[in-house]
């Protein structure tokens, strides 16, 4: 393809690698970055398993995904019955929750009487699937015995930014910084519905649900 020759003239570095030595098909969760003006976390990344992360943030991590439970995978090399996006699996694993049957997400604690203030179960009621055009996905969930419906969303930071009720001052600066470090960055948000059920929200449609989100972190 001769037209590529001028492009090759711009190359100053070539990097070669054999898959399996320096690379891996597994995703690693680095942490959560909060930007709330009333917290003092500086520039540190927080980890739900070792640091204090707000339950609203962990709820999005645990509930907003398209993972499925498949018992046939138990015992395979991954030793995980979860199938789906490797990135979502990594985030879920480090959220402290695990997927079970019927789109149920359960807090994975040895002491079942203690959930550290997090809901014991999160039930995914409906998914507005990820769209490459919209660059986001949103789910409707309920938890434990509560009738409150939570809308949880995640997606490209520049997309979620337009759906937030309030945008932190350093929003763009932070996500562009981590992108510049070669990391994949997703923005998270949530909102609640106390007077509408899942069926009513499904009838209202995606555009109605996906607005006025509260920022939950990167």
Which short descriptors sum up this protein?
single chain; 218 residues; alpha+beta; seven-stranded antiparallel β-sheet; two-stranded antiparallel ribbon; 7 helices; 9 strands; globular
Describe the structure.
The chain has helices at residues 5-8, 55-63, 86-93, 157-161, 171-180, 198-204, 206-209; strands at 68-69, 82-83, 97-100, 104-107, 121-131, 136-143, 149-155, 187-193, 214-217. With 218 residues, the protein is of the alpha+beta class. It is globular and about 60 Å long. It starts with a helix and ends with a strand. 25% of the residues are buried.
How does the SSE layout of this entry go?
Blueprint: H1 5-8, H2 55-63, E1 68-69, E2 82-83, H3 86-93, E3 97-100, E4 104-107, E5 121-131, E6 136-143, E7 149-155, H4 157-161, H5 171-180, E8 187-193, H6 198-204, H7 206-209, E9 214-217
Antiparallel strand pairs: 1-2, 3-4, 4-5, 5-6, 6-7, 7-8, 8-9
């Amino acid at each position: 393809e001769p037209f590529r020759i001028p492009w090759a003239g711009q190359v100053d570095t070539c990097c070669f690698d054999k898959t399996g030595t320096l690379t891996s098909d597994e995703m690693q969760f680095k942490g959560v970055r909060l930007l709330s003006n009333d917290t003092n976390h500086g520039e540190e990344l927080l980890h739900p398993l070792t640091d204090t992360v707000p339950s609203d943030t962990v709820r999005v991590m645990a509930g907003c995904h398209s993972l499925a439970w498949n018992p046939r995978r138990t015992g395979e090399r991954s030793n995980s019955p979860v199938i789906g996006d490797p990135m979502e699996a990594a985030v879920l694993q480090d959220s402290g929750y695990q997927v079970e049957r019927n789109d149920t997400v359960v807090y994975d604690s040895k002491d079942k009487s203690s959930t550290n203030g997090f809901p014991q179960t999160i039930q995914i009621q409906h998914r507005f699937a990820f769209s490459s055009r919209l660059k986001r996905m949103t789910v409707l969930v309920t938890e434990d015995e509560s009738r409150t419906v939570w809308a949880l969303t995640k997606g490209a930071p520049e997309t979620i930014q337009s759906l937030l009720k309030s945008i932190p001052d350093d929003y763009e600066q932070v996500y562009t910084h981590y992108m510049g470090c070669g990391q994949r960055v997703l923005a998270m948000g949530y909102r609640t519905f106390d007077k509408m059920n899942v069926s009513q929200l499904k009838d209202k449609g995606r555009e109605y649900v996906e607005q006025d989100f509260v920022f939950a972190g990167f």
